[in-house]
Design brief:
The protein is mainly α. The chain has ten helices and no strands. It has one domain. Helix 4 packs parallel to helix 6. The longest helix is centred in the last third of the chain and has 32 residues.
Length: about 240
């Protein structure tokens, strides 16, 4: 375990958390995509519980900063799917190895990116939001990385709506996943302690995200979504076979 920041693993973890916080504040997603894989390599104890907890706290900050742009109807459909899938994921987390889940979801993320690049559009409507929320619940609870399905649905929407709604989704979704893990005996005080150690660095990144919001609001949503999703998918696959 990383006992101090005054070491290369500790410094790498701090930098990853700051960068992830900045990306989260700019887009409304991406925190666990960037931070979770690296921290899992440095110390497996960081995932899934502590990473989900930190991401939830960061998302609260992001949600409150643009609460006016929150689309409550979108949120309701997406969370409906997340509730069911997170509960099931917590119950079956021991039936498959983490590597198998990582590989499965990694290939699914890259497939969705490929379909988007081919010209396929996934409009943000009740059916797609329900499906994306369901898949996100599985991915987020099992691997700490649940943003790609929701991000793909939102890639053609405005920056403020995407950020506010995704942040709100990950706030409630994170709480659902934490509760499900706790009920399954996979979240405790040690996980909470690790999350508290990581939180200041994540919020430092969140405070630095103003520049990223300007880029996203000028039309850079899709480029950011596809780039971060691709990196996420590749990291999941490498983590599975590495």
């Amino acid at each position: 375990m990383i006992d101090t920041l005054w070491s290369w693993p500790g410094l790498a973890a701090a930098i990853a958390l700051v960068l992830a916080g900045a990306i989260q504040g700019s887009t409304g997603f991406g925190f666990n995509m960037l931070a979770a894989p690296l921290l899992a390599i440095l110390d497996p104890a960081f995932v899934p519980g502590p990473m989900i907890t930190v991401a939830t706290l960061v998302c609260i900050g992001g949600m409150m900063s643009e609460l006016h742009a929150l689309n409550r109807q979108d949120l309701a459909y997406a969370l409906s799917g997340r509730v069911v899938s997170a509960t099931v994921a917590a119950l079956i987390v021991g039936l498959m190895s983490p590597e198998a889940f990582s590989a499965l979801f990694g290939f699914a993320v890259l497939l969705s990116v490929g379909l988007s690049l081919s010209g396929l559009r996934i409009p943000a409507r009740p059916s797609t939001l329900l499906a994306a929320g369901t898949i996100s619940g599985f991915m987020g609870t099992l691997t700490s990385i649940g943003a790609p399905p929701m991000a793909m649905v939102y890639q053609d929407t405005g920056g403020a709506r995407m950020r506010a709604t995704l942040n709100a989704f990950f706030v409630f979704g994170g709480l659902i996943s934490i509760l499900a893990l706790w009920l399954a005996g996979r979240f405790g005080t040690h996980d909470l302690w690790l999350a508290m150690l990581m939180t200041p660095f994540a919020f430092a990144g969140l405070l630095m995200s103003a520049w990223g919001r300007k880029f996203v609001d000028r039309g850079g949503v899709k480029a950011v979504v596809l780039t971060v999703s691709s990196i996420s998918g590749l990291v999941l696959i490498l983590r599975a076979f590495g």
